[in-house]
Write a structure and sequence with these properties.
The protein is mainly α and 143 residues long. The chain contains 8 helices and no strands. Helix 2 runs parallel beside helix 5 and helix 6 crosses helix 8. The radius of gyration is 14 Å and the shape is globular. The N and C termini lie far apart (35 Å).
Length: 143
């Protein structure tokens, strides 16, 4: 149910199927993080397949599936084409790259998100949702 509501929250302001599916996918990641799934599971290229029931056994938009299959897993981030733009696909890919590459540090991931440039507040906010769910408030920087 949380995954579906995540998608519905995006439909309020965007009628695009990509937005609905991106919000569903990201909502599923957050639910899984809150349920204690390991980072390796969250960033696995099989996460969607393992949680297909959460998505009502339906296919995601091809652009979202590309992300689910690990398009953000690029070691050099910006140099490898990761961009934090306002468009949902780019923004989610950038936020997931920041999470994937954060070396288990909320602060490093937030800096990674911001240092991509472009729409930094959006990328960092999206990163912070998942990273906050995964790390918990006790692991946030104290400053």
């Amino acid at each position: 149910m949380a995954v579906e509501y995540s998608g519905m929250s995006g439909k309020i302001t965007h009628g695009d199927d990509r937005v609905y599916d991106a919000c569903c996918y990201y909502g599923a990641l957050i639910v899984a993080a809150l349920n204690g799934e390991k980072k390796e599971e969250l960033t696995s290229t099989t996460f969607y397949d393992k949680h297909l029931e959460w998505f009502g056994y339906r296919s995601l938009h091809p652009d979202v599936m590309t992300i689910a299959q690990g398009s953000y897993q690029k070691a050099r981030g910006y140099q490898d084409g990761i961009r934090g733009k306002g468009y949902i696909i780019n923004a989610m890919e950038a936020a997931l790259w920041a999470f994937w590459s954060d070396e288990d540090s909320f602060e490093k991931g937030a800096l990674n998100a911001v240092n991509l440039g472009d729409d930094t507040d959006t990328t960092a906010a999206i990163y912070g949702q998942l990273a906050g769910a995964y790390y918990g408030y006790k692991k946030l920087p104290k400053r």
